[in-house]
Amino acid sequence: MSWKIAEAKQQLSKVVQLAQTEPQTLQRRDEAVAVIVSAEEYRRFEGWKERSEGSLADAFARVRAVAVDEGWELSVAPRTNRAAALPPRRTMKKAR
Predict the structure, then answer these.
(1) For the sheet containing 24-28, what is the strand order?
(2) What is the mean pLDDT of residues 81-91?
(3) What is the C-alpha separation between 61 and 84, in angstroms, rounded?
């Protein structure tokens, strides 16, 4: 449910009660500016956030590590629907 901030202030107890079953959106000038959720929902979000820390590259690195541990192998077929082939991939080597 959506509330104008002034209405939410006047009916805070009701907003909090309703937040136990579904998020309550607060709006200013018809734009969502905040959401009130139950404490349980917030704990779930915090847990998800902790598990999701890191970049997308970190997530792919974890997937690659699991793939190696599990003995998975990914084979990618050459693309046939591209007008021009991609240029050769350049690799970087560490300076010694």
Answers:
(1) 2-4, 24-28, 31-36
(2) 66
(3) 30
Q: List 3's β-bridge partners, or say none.
A: 26
Report yes or no on whether pTM surpasses 0.90: no
Question: Mean pLDDT of all residues in the chain?
Answer: 86
Residue 49 has pLDDT above 90, yes or no: no
Does the residue 27 lie in any domain? yes
What are 32's strand-pairing partners? 27
Q: Looking at the domain assignment, is residue 63 inside a domain?
A: no
Q: Give the number of domains in the chain.
A: 1
Q: Which structural domain, as residue segments, surrounds residue 14?
A: 2-37
In angstroms, rounded to a whole number, what is the distance separating the alpha carbons of residues 49 and 54?
Answer: 10
